[in-house]
Design brief:
The protein is α/β, with parallel strands linked by helices and 177 residues long. It has helices at residues 14-23, 41-48, 83-91, 100-107, and strands at residues 30-33, 55-63, 69-76, 79-81, 95-97, 125-128, 137-140, 146-150, 161-164, 168-170.
Amino acid sequence: MARYRCDVTDDLDPDRDALEAALAGRGPHELFPCDPALADTAAFCAHYGFDPADAANTIVVVGKGADPLYAACVVLATHRLDVNRVVRARIGRKSSFASPDETRSLTGHEIGGVTVFGLPDDLPIWVDAAVMDRKRIVLGGGSRSWKVIAPPSILRTLPRVEVVEGLANPAPPRDPA
């Protein structure tokens, strides 16, 4: 695995401590510090030289209604979550992406750093099957300052995780113009 230079050296980092605690006993992984200004997937991959096809984003979705239902979905950055069909069918009602405030309230994480590690045990976690086909994945680390590099098998160590075929679909190619 290539090594990348980053100037994060603070040994008293509560974000790292929480991440390490959530990852304890889950198998091989590497913590990767990043500049919070570069935490969003496209900027992160471009700056640090990662393939976007290895970037696995955690996206919180909500089933609408008086008593909202939530789930965390893990999909590759090269794919688009099928909220209108697959998520809606799994939740059983109209669904959408959770707002940044809902995501923060539920997970304790900011957008750009949401991770599946350390989520509430009763929150369903749905992983798109394409994520499991990668040799390694890069996941959010619970803050905009950290990422987790690991084999996708690490996701199977989480409570309430399900691998879902077709949860996301390959995104159309971006127009370079």
